[in-house]
Specification:
The chain is an alpha/beta fold. It is about 25% helix and about 30% strand. It has one domain: 4-Layer Sandwich (Nitrilase/N-carbamoyl-D-aminoacid amidohydrolase). Strands 1, 2, 3, 4, 5, 6, 9 and 18 form an eight-stranded mixed beta sheet that branches. A six-stranded mixed beta sheet has the order 10-11-12-13-16-17, covered by helices on one side. A two-stranded antiparallel sheet has the order 7-8.
Length: about 270
Amino acid sequence: MPAEPVRAAVVQVLADTDTARNVARAGELVQAAAAAGAHLVVLPEKWNWWGPASATASGAEPLDGPSLAAARAWARDLGIAIVAGSVLEAIGDGTRAFNTSVLIGPDGTDVATYRKIHLFDVDVDGHAYRESTATEAGDDVVTGDVLGMGVGLSVCYDLRFPELYRAHAAAGARVLAVPANFTPQTGEAHWQLLLCARAVEDQCFVLAAGQCGTHATGEGAWGHSMIIDPWGRVMAEVTDDEGIAVADLDPDAQDAIRASLPALAHRRL
């Protein structure tokens, strides 16, 4: 029997250190996505708070904190599944955090929790990024099931490590979620290229939700949130401003691609 397509949306915002404002704005866009018929919505990396690494502790919350509580309420009230992008999860004495993505089911309960494995310690365009100064790396590959689909969880810099996404595909993922805050320089050069590569390699839909504009810290964010099909085609995109992009994920079309070009079945390593 043919499977019904699932309408999905990616949300693009520009967050700052005002958590209440950020959560309210994200909630408006989640409701807009639901009004457009989306049943699966992906938020960006650190959608609830963005500030300097030195202030990470002030932006961190426990998993039962107000930001994820709001996301669970949106999921429950709207009857949708939400990848709550990522939030800074407070750990230990509160001086350090995980960069954590939570998959929430339509009943408002947590389905899966993923802690970012690959931390962004790089020098780009004269700026030194050192995520590890206040953030701990996770260890586990996490795939959760909602709406009859496996969803592979990742965060931003993870996108450069294809073995993570291959593990998701091997675990049965149909969708790869990529909440992010790519820099303008790396975004212009590599964002769409890497997203399309992950889609084609693993014959999965990719839902990539990014931040946009310029943060109060002076750091830029590339934006260009997009939904990509398993053939590597961009189905929908937000460009430079806050907003949403919506597209239908057709599992039958995905199955046809996997059947006609069975690269996943041909794997020998």
